[in-house]
């Protein structure tokens, strides 16, 4: 812990559930008063959406502060699909808003053979598929950990990039074809020719993000933008239905490169629970209510386009999430989606055999036995999307929020009641 406290605490935005909590909207909202926005983990499998004046801006690599024309940083904890990143850069450049972007040289690059490996292995799993988007993210991290990755500093150096690519690719091709019987028509020449142009265009963005953050962390307002959610963490999530990265707050230090210190940890919580793909989901709804929530909440993946599974809010999840992240306060999103439901539920604890379990179990076999024990609430019929003040919310709505605060002993600071940037109430 630092002896000297910064004048303004850096903020870290963490998804408290399985991702898709609305972190992009929150980062955008808080970016107005920030100097630097730093994306610190994940790849283009993490989609954040910002809605401004009715227009949707889906982002998967650029930090969500781009609409405010802030300084954007991508740290070495992120893996980059160069084609996807350039598409996002071009989108904003064509709108006369070229991103002020710096990319750390240590970032690893997602290569086409990573995507082929992802597709081949997911197909080979058959009924044991984990729901991979086949974007190659996990295999890019695998290469990074096996010291066989291509980093951004390599990618923008044509000679070094060619040398590495032509050494690595034959081994990847052999693995894909021999082990998984998956035909590879790509050649190293094909990849090199396409990637060369991407590297030339991205070269101007290189810079030491760790150094920039370290020099400014006590001087400027910095927001660290997390991808995915706590329960997709590679260590503490619902393994193996997880991502390849750490998603909890403590990982920000190693993924960017600065010493542990006091951070303002903000937990973003959807007013209900969703998840994409396979894996355990104790409070999942299989009835018309679940369908209604999904339809009203437009619960489809930003990147995957897959329909999200929907269920009631889960306090055992949030208790563990708080223990892992240390939330300073919560931001509740998509509260408006629950409007019109006559009855609402929140899972207070699980019953596993004769035991009451108040914190999300780590073992999948325990989760399969977990029976959620619910608190019941009366719903509200009013449309709350235009409400600006907390006291103007319906009483039943406030009761729902205050029960969350009381049960978790964490304050709620903001409540999102619509998709638009300004549809947020400060409590």
What does this molecule look like?
The chain has 427 residues and is an alpha/beta fold. It has two domains: 11-95 and 209-426, Adenylosuccinate Synthetase, subunit A, domain 3 (Adenylosuccinate Synthetase, Chain A, domain 3); 108-205, Orthogonal Bundle (Adenylosuccinate Synthetase, subunit A, domain 2). The chain has helices at residues 23-31, 82-94, 112-124, 137-145, 152-155, 158-180, 188-202, 209-216, 251-256, 288-296, 315-325, 364-369, 395-408, and strands spanning 11-15, 36-39, 48-52, 55-59, 71-74, 79-80, 100-103, 108-109, 222-225, 264-270, 273-275, 309-311, 313-314, 329-333, 343-352, 355-357, 371-378, 412-416, 424-426. It has a nine-stranded mixed sheet with strand order 7-5-2-9-1-10-14-18-19, sandwiched between helices. Strands 13, 15, 16 and 17 form a four-stranded mixed sheet that branches. A hairpin with a 2-residue loop joins strand 3 and strand 4 (55-59). The longest helix is centred in the middle third of the chain and has 23 residues, at 158-180. The model is unreliable at 1-6 (pLDDT under 50).
Primary descriptors:
427 residues, alpha/beta, Adenylosuccinate Synthetase, Chain A, domain 3, Adenylosuccinate Synthetase, subunit A, domain 2, nine-stranded mixed β-sheet, 13 helices, 19 strands, globular
């Amino acid at each position: 812990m630092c002896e000297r406290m910064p004048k303004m605490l850096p903020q870290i935005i963490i998804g408290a559930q399985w991702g898709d909590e609305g972190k992009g909207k929150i980062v955008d909202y808080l970016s107005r008063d920030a100097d630097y926005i730093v994306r610190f983990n994940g790849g283009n499998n993490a989609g954040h959406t910002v809605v401004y004046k009715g227009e949707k801006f889906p982002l998967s690599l650029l930090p969500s502060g781009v609409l405010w024309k802030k300084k954007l940083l991508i740290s070495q904890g992120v893996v980059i699909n160069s084609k996807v990143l350039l598409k996002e850069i071009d989108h904003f450049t064509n709108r006369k808003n070229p991103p002020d972007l710096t990319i750390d040289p240590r970032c690893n690059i997602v290569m086409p053979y990573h995507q082929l490996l992802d597709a081949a292995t997911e197909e080979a799993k058959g009924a044991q598929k984990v729901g991979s988007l086949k974007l190659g993210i996990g295999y890019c991290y695998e290469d990074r950990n096996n010291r066989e990755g291509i980093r951004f500093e390599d990618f923008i150096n044509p000679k070094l990039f060619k040398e590495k690519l032509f050494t690595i690719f034959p081994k990847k091709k052999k693995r894909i074809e021999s082990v998984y019987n998956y035909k590879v028509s790509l050649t190293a020449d094909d990849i090199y020719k396409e990637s060369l142009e991407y590297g030339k265009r991205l070269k101007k963005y290189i810079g030491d993000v760790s150094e920039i953050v370290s020099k400014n962390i006590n001087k400027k307002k910095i927001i660290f933008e997390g991808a995915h959610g706590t329960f997709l963490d590679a260590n503490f999530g619902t393994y193996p239905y997880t991502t390849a990265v750490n998603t909890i707050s403590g990982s920000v230090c190693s993924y960017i490169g600065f010493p542990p210190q006091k951070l303002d940890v903000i937990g973003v919580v959807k007013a209900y629970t969703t998840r994409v793909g396979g894996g355990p989901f104790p409070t999942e709804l299989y009835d018309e209510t679940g369908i209604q929530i999904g339809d009203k909440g437009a619960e489809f993946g930003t990147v995957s386009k897959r329909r999200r599974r929907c269920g009631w809010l889960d306090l055992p999840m949030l208790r563990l999430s708080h223990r892992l992240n240390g939330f300073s306060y919560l931001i509740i999103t998509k509260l408006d989606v629950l409007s019109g439901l006559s009855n609402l539920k929140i899972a207070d604890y699980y019953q596993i055999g004769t035991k009451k379990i108040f914190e999300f179990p780590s073992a999948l076999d325990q989760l399969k036995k977990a029976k959620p024990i619910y608190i019941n609430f009366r719903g509200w019929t009013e449309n709350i999307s235009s409400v600006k003040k907390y006291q103007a919310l319906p009483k039943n709505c406030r009761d729902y929020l205050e029960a969350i605060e009381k049960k978790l002993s964490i304050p709620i600071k903001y409540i999102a009641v619509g998709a638009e940037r300004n549809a947020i109430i400060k409590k």
